[in-house]
Write a structure and sequence with these properties.
Elements (H helix, E strand, L loop, with lengths): L6 H8 L14 E4 L11 E7 L9 E7 L8 H7 L6 E2 L2 E2 L1 E2 L2 E5 L6 H21 L3 E5 L12 H17 L3 E5 L15 E5 L7 H8 L3 E6 L9 H5 L7 E5 L13 E3 L4
Parallel strand pairs: 1-2, 2-3, 3-8, 8-9, 9-10, 10-11, 11-12
Antiparallel strand pairs: 4-5, 6-7, 12-13
Helix pairs in contact: 1-4, 3-4
């Protein structure tokens, strides 16, 4: 892993203290509804939806924002409004091989990060105005997947995005990247959302730095060591707030929809 979090970035992060009126995710079940909102199971207290969706009435709502890559179909907008913030290789925007209509954002300079904060800040404000309680920033780990990016640059951007969220009275969640869990609280993150921490043996890393402020999403098509979900829930580091979903995050009633929760402890 590259060198330590830069002093200037850490100082900025420490200035991003949570607002007194900000609410953290409560106890209770979680539903991960990025494929589109629907009425949650009665056991659910926390709902995660996309920033373009509406929050679920009567629940604690977390807003998904793609903080480190462009959204599908948005490259032209970025090239028009913030061309300096799009990562390039040989002069061409760098696409994510797994999501070829998403492009990496350049976190390496203060100017590039400023453009990202301005653009992503609009999505964060949309979350706050819609009535969400918190926001999660996806693709924090982009520095591990794209040449030219760095840990320092991504954490510096993270601290700025967290500051915007806190100014709007939104809690801010780290997304994935267990190797960065030690830096997450320093960057100002209040909780963490992981995908498949059991499968990738990362649950303990999150627990060490976030304790019970951890939400995990496991997928039915890749169970850890073939374990049934109830046995996965009993693993020592598995967070209480674990939800089992289908990989496509389908809506209830659609063929292939999967939803289950770890029981309360």
């Amino acid at each position: 892993m590259p060198g330590p979090f830069r002093t200037a970035a850490l100082a900025a992060a420490l200035c991003a203290a949570p607002a007194a009126s900000m609410a953290l995710p409560p106890e209770g079940g979680v539903d991960y509804q990025l494929g589109g909102g629907y009425p949650p199971d009665p056991r659910v207290a926390i709902v995660v939806r996309d920033s373009t969706d509406a929050p679920s009435p009567g629940h604690y709502n977390i807003c998904y924002v793609n903080g480190f890559q462009t959204q599908p179909g948005a490259l032209d907008w970025w090239l028009t409004h913030h061309p300096q913030s799009v990562l390039r290789a040989d002069g061409k925007p760098v696409a994510d091989p797994g999501w070829p209509d998403e492009y990496a954002l350049d976190t390496t300079t203060a100017a590039a990060r400023a453009g990202i904060v301005e653009a992503v800040g609009m999505a964060i404000r949309r979350c706050a105005e819609a009535g969400f309680d918190a926001v999660e920033f996806d693709n924090l780990d982009s520095w591990t997947r794209f040449n030219g990016l760095s840990l320092d640059g991504n954490l510096a951007l993270a601290s700025q995005l967290v500051a915007v969220a806190h100014d709007l009275k939104l809690a801010a969640g780290q997304k994935n990247a267990p190797d960065l869990a030690a830096h997450g609280p320093a960057a100002g993150f209040d909780f963490v959302i992981s995908e498949e921490c059991a499968v990738w043996d990362g649950c303990g890393s999150y627990r060490a730095h976030y304790g019970d402020r951890h939400i995990d999403v496991e997928y039915d098509d890749a169970p850890k060591d073939g374990l049934p979900f109830d046995q996965l829930c009993a693993l020592p580091d598995q967070p209480r707030r674990t939800v089992l979903r289908d990989r496509l995050l389908l809506r209830r009633g659609e063929p292939g929809y999967v939803f289950n929760l770890c029981p309360p402890r």
